[in-house]
Amino acid sequence: MSIGGIGARYSLPEAPVLALAAGNDLVLLGNGDPANEADAMAAVRAAVLSGRLDRAALHGSAMRVNQLRDRWGRRFAQYRPVKGA
């Protein structure tokens, strides 16, 4: 399988760890394979437990992502079906 972007140079489990270590707040995995997500999460967890990734820095990232979600993620009113339609 040929992949582009960071995946052209680094394995999937390694790429998210490198991205987070470089200061990214969010990592997106685009192929929709739950096994890839599990591998990425396991690699990030191992990197935190080994000290390779700083837990406090990841917490800060999570807080920033949550602030964005709270600010922009609820912009639209929830869909409610029209009665009689």
SSE string, helix = H, strand = E? HHH
Helix content: 40-55%
Q: What fraction of residues sit in β-strands? A: under 5%
List the domain count as a whole number.
Answer: 1
User: Would you count the extended β strands for me?
Assistant: 0
What is the CA–CA distance across the termini?
A: 47 Å
Given the C-alpha coordinates, what overall shape results?
extended
In round numbers, the mean pLDDT is 86
Poorly predicted regions are: none
Q: Name the structural class.
A: mainly alpha
Major sheet description: none
Rg of Cα set: 17 Å
Explained architecture:
- The structure is a single chain.
- The mean pLDDT is 86.
- This protein has one domain.
- Helices cover 51% and strands 0% of the residues.
- α1 packs across α2.
- It is mainly alpha-helical.
- It starts with 13 loop residues before the first helix and ends in a 13-residue tail after the last helix.
- It contains three helices and no strands.
Task: Give structural attributes.
single chain, 85 residues, mainly alpha
Entry summary:
With 85 residues, this protein is mainly alpha-helical. Helix content is 51%, strand content 0%.
Secondary structure elements and pairings:
Elements lengths: L13 H8 L12 H17 L4 H18 L13
